[in-house]
Amino acid sequence: MRTLLGSAPALCCLLIAAFPAAAQQSDAIWACEDDQGHKVFQNVGNGRGCRRIDGLIATVPGTSPAPAARPSVPPGGVSPANFPRVDRDAQRVRDVDRRRILEDELRVEQQRLVRLREDFNNGSPHVVGEETVASATYRERVQRLMEEIQRSEASIGSLKRELAPPRY
User: How far is CA 150 from CA 45, 106, 109, 143, in A?
Assistant: First the structure.
């Protein structure tokens, strides 16, 4: 282990790997600079700007996050006074319309899933036209049906989550 170019993570790995050997041989690790000004780690201190590194470095400097500043809330509420407002009855009408649209989409998607599963026929769709069970077009159609079933199931799950009552 003569010279190792690297950064702080490389230094950590080097120190962790060399720790048992260093405890037995009591060899020091030196941080020096090469001719291009890059940091070089070596087991001898004969170089430019060398300093001895003792012990095991447990953390990399500068990795702790800075505490986040809390945004100031304007007095009297979160939104400004001139922010457009919707009255309660109008919002209820919008919510009812939204729910009806989502329920219609859910019903259509569930009907689509039933049709796709019938076409899929438990992984053995009926042969169509010039296809054979061993043909590439048949395998592609089976794969496409499986993907469409998965997409449809995911859409149904999303719609059901959207229709679930809010948890706040």
Answer: 62, 15, 12, 11
Residue 83 lies in a domain: no
For the segment 145-167, what is each residue's pLDDT rounded down to a tens digit?
A: 999 999 999 999 999 999 998 76
Report DSSP state, residue 39.
E
Calpha distance 15→41 (Å, rounded):
10
Neighbours of 66 (CB within 10 A): 5
- Residue 151 belongs to domain spanning: 88-163
49 and 104 share one domain: no
Tally of domains within the chain: 2
Q: List the 39-42 sheet strands across, edge first.
A: 3-5, 39-42, 29-33, 48-53
Is this prediction's pTM over 0.90?
Answer: no
Looking at the domain assignment, is residue 80 inside a domain? no
Write out pLDDT tens, residues 18-32: 554 444 444 678 888
